[in-house]
Please model this.
Amino acid sequence: MSFLLFQTSLALYLLATAAYLVFFFSEKAQIRKNARLLFVLAFALHSVTIIVRYFEAGHTPITTRHETISFFAWSLGCGYLSFCWRYEVKNLGAFVSLLVLTLMTMAAFASREIVSLSPLLQSGWLPAHASLSILAYGFFALAGIGGLMYLLQERTIKRKRFGLFYSRLPSLETLDKLNHHCLSVGFPLLTLGMITGSLWAKQALGSYWHWDPKETWTLITWLLYAGLIHQRFTVGWRGRQAAWLSIAALVVALFTYWGVSVFFAGYHGNFS
Model:
């Protein structure tokens, strides 16, 4: 059942992405309305897919590569819709839906086999730790997309070439609000993810911290975002500086999320 639901949500994301891209060039309000409706429907069905997968697997479906990539795509969609609920963001959907579609396609090519949990993962801390951490990365990915759009828009304005991108990208002020929103939500989520992970490690392995490669890189990621939060809310970093650092921090976060399990051995390899 979850397979059929996943394929249907993937198809809806594809249609939403196509509609958003058509709107990007045509700027017809009805197309944008349809694109957003398709994205909301895809996200809702994706949510149902995760719930059904939970009952099929008998545990929270965020342990295999297929499940974690799918949940990452869901987290990005969640961040996007949470921001759109409060602000009007011109053409952000075209960028977000394209990335969500890419992630869903990657998940589609990964093995969908339901794998029994190892003794280490058979813990009530699993859904709290893993879901909070991946949800945080979803918000950070949205901040990175906003940072890229900010730099594109700023470059257009500085060069005074008011062409395609200038008229279609959100204002610099709106993109800066997006960065603020994503950091304000993503950083506490990552912090809670680290805390629940430490409590889990204490319960399962006897101590709160083991300098596992994943733990170390998560700490590096946390410190990087903590620095960005400090510079933004204390020193007053805005705009271009925040955009560049959001992109750089996202690269580190994605390496922590995917790269560490590929290049380093550790007990967190169970999540890949």
Summary: The radius of gyration is 19 Å.
